[in-house]
Design goal:
Shape of chain B: globular
Strand content of chain B: 15-25%
Number of domains of chain B: 1
Structural class of chain B: alpha/beta
Distance between the termini of chain A: 51 Å
Mean pLDDT of chain B: 96
Shape of chain A: globular
Strand order of the largest sheet of chain A: 16-15-14-17-18
Mean pLDDT of chain A: 93
Largest sheet of chain B: 7 strands, mixed
Distance between the termini of chain B: 35 Å
Oligomer: heterodimer
Number of helices of chain A: 13
Structural class of chain A: alpha/beta
Low-confidence stretches of chain A: none
CATH class of chain B: Alpha Beta
Number of helices of chain B: 8
Helix content of chain A: 25-40%
CATH superfamily of chain B: Aconitase, domain 4
Chain lengths: 416, 204
């Protein structure tokens, strides 16, 4: 009998063009996404007198990306959140600008095979607990560097029960766990989502694709380099208190005390994070007042996210400035067709144009020095949302709850 | 690409773990070309300078013995976060040629190789020992030798590190990786023909 293989291994082996020295392989790239930040690679390519080898496999998007991508393909983009596409069962990972230039010129990348980690989440999520809480709990458990050198496969009944939008949220934050790639095995949920989408295969191609997708999930008995298990029942609505995504706790918790930590470097790092965040150890997380709320980013700006936020907002009023930034024009129009924009606007939220906005703070859409933001984005790094801005990462439902109370709030006290 | 062979230079310790690429170069500088005058001043900008542009004396690179260090000795997961290659460009502009760490952010790690910076991975306790020495003897030099894959600490201790032979060869020679890959063009064409037969639905 053949050796049982992981999903990662199956996709990887179908894309090896050549073996190089030291375990490097020349990996073929099926899809290359470009965004507005890819211009410097174009410049260098032109200067070297080279051309884009496969323009037909190269997709440009105006503001980062939210494209639908089928499973089993390899996909890269000059953006660390490219792993989002792993939600469809694609091997998708972020690359740097020089690697972007390399893919443009050759449609390949020299890659060393990463290790594979399976993270299994079992059980039903409680009301008010979402995909964002799941991934924050995972990062808190394995650490921001826990996935370094690995591709992650997310598995288990909790993940299987998720919609594609929810899986996108989980895979999106793989890089915050240190992993370049994260993926979920394609299943009926995936197929139903992909069928009829603009870039999905049609007719006979659809039937052949379906056969490939059905064969790709990890074989039973496949060996993983590392296994991590979580129980859905242990996961509560989660917020971050520090300046690394691993600094996450249930909303029912308190700001931790560095003095209680034995490891010196960890203690200093926590103390610095708390000083930057302007927080005192022992403060209940649900008593932390916020100045702003941001619902958006490639982590949480899809239709499911906006619906979850709208359910909390309906009939209430935002008491702090709150922005809703849909992930794409398509999402924006779909949300408007459902009347979600009116729910938000009537509650005093700002309904804005699609884009990255206050997640990356590149277009002047930033929070002020010392301002505290409940944000559905993926990074609470120092200065990420503006110089001196303080970010608490939360789910869309939790962000909506913070907007209507003015403080970090357990969303379960508002919906039930 | 500039090759990397051997370097003996002053090193600076960075003790906090998980230093992200936003901290290495804040987003508002990402649109500046790397040839821009003063590009090196964007390095660690918000932890290195006050709002009025004056230096924060507590930041390591603002302290005389560490100023202009060409080697950084960091804690785990240095360079995590965004894929921005500018994090490597700005280190290079400052003069940093090698980063020694227990682990590095995966994309940052790859980006180092593409710009002639040598990333050195050593066990956590070895790196912590190097940082301790640098605190005790500020301005002490470290030697990083790629050919022999060794780091020589100030106290003379020799630490061997592993590096992928493929990456090592390219760093030593400074060879253009795209030119190398273009030599594989026939293989790529063969692969494309087979791939189109086996997975015909992939092409859009």
């Amino acid at each position: 009998m053949a050796t049982p293989l992981t999903m990662f291994e199956k996709i990887w082996s179908r894309h090896v063009v050549a073996e190089g020295p030291g375990g490097h392989v020349l990996l073929y790239i099926d899809r290359h996404l470009l965004h507005e930040g890819s211009t410097s690679a174009f410049g260098r390519l032109a200067k070297a007198g080279r051309r884009v080898r496969r323009p037909d496999l190269t997709f440009a998007t105006a503001d980062h990306y939210i494209l639908t991508s089928p499973g089993v393909v390899t996909l890269v983009c000059g953006d660390s959140h490219t792993a989002t596409h792993g939600a469809f069962g694609a091997l998708a990972f972020g690359i740097g600008s020089t690697e972007v230039e390399h893919v443009m010129a050759t449609q390949t990348l020299w890659q060393k095979k990463p290790k594979v980690m399976r993270i299994t989440v079992e059980g039903r999520l409680a009301v008010g607990v979402t995909a964002k809480d799941v991934i924050l709990a995972i990062i808190a458990k394995i650490g921001a560097g826990g996935g370094v050198g690995h591709a992650i496969e997310y598995a288990g009944s909790t993940i299987r029960a998720m919609s594609v939008d929810e899986r996108l949220t989980v895979c999106n934050m793989s890089i915050e766990a240190g992993a370049r790639a994260g993926m979920v095995a394609p299943d009926e949920t995936t197929f139903a989502h992909l069928e009829g989408k603009p870039f999905a295969p049609k007719g006979d191609a659809w039937r052949r694709a379906l056969a490939d997708w059905k064969a790709v999930p990890s074989d039973s008995g496949a060996a993983f380099d590392r296994e991590v298990e979580l129980s859905a029942s242990e996961i509560a609505p989660t917020v971050t208190w520090g300046t690394s995504p691993q600094d996450a706790l249930p909303i029912t918790g308190r700001v931790p005390d560095p003095a209680a930590v034995a490891d010196g470097a960890r203690r200093e790092s926590m103390a610095r994070a708390l000083a930057y965040m302007g927080l005192t150890p022992g403060t209940p997380l649900s008593e932390i007042a916020v100045n702003r709320v941001f619902i958006g980013s490639c982590t949480n700006s899809r239709l499911d996210d906006l619906r979850a936020a709208a359910r909390v907002v309906k009939g209430r009023r935002a008491v702090v400035p709150a922005w809703i930034v849909p992930g794409s024009g398509l999402v924006k129009r779909a949300a408007e067709a459902e009347g979600l924009d009116r729910v938000f606007v009537e509650a005093g939220f700002e309904w804005r144009e699609a884009g990255c906005s206050m997640c990356v703070g590149m277009n002047g859409e930033t929070a002020g020095e010392g301002e505290r933001v409940a944000s559905t984005s993926n990074r609470n790094f120092e200065g990420r949302q503006g110089k001196g801005a303080r970010t608490h990462l939360v789910s869309p439902a939790m962000a909506a709850a913070a907007a209507v109370t003015g403080r970090l709030t357990d969303v379960r006290t508002l919906v039930g | 690409m500039q090759p990397f062979t051997k370097l003996t230079a002053a090193a600076a310790p960075i003790d906090l773990p998980n230093i992200d690429t936003d901290r290495i170069i804040p987003a508002r500088f990402l649109r500046k070309p790397k040839e821009a005058p003063g590009y090196a001043s964007f390095l660690f900008h918000d932890v290195r300078f006050n709002a009025d542009g004056s230096e924060k004396p507590e930041f390591v690179l603002n302290q005389a013995p560490y100023r202009g260090a060409k080697i950084l000795v960091t804690a785990e997961n240095f360079g995590c976060g965004s894929s921005r290659e500018m994090a490597v460009w700005v280190l290079d502009a400052y003069g940093v040629r090698s980063v020694i760490a227990p682990s590095l952010g995966d994309i940052f790690h790859q980006n180092c190789f593409k710009n002639g910076l040598l990333p050195v991975i050593l066990p956590g306790e070895v790196v912590a020992g190097l940082r301790r020495q640098l605190h005790q003897r500020p301005g002490a030099a470290i030697t990083v030798d790629l050919e022999s894959q060794t780091v020589t600490a100030h106290d003379g201790a020799l630490h061997r590190f592993e590096i992928d032979p493929f990456r090592k060869e390219i760093l030593l020679s400074g060879r253009d990786e795209i030119a190398l890959t273009l030599d594989f063009d026939a293989r790529v064409r063969d692969f494309e023909a087979r791939h189109a037969r086996e997975m015909p639905w992939v092409a859009p």
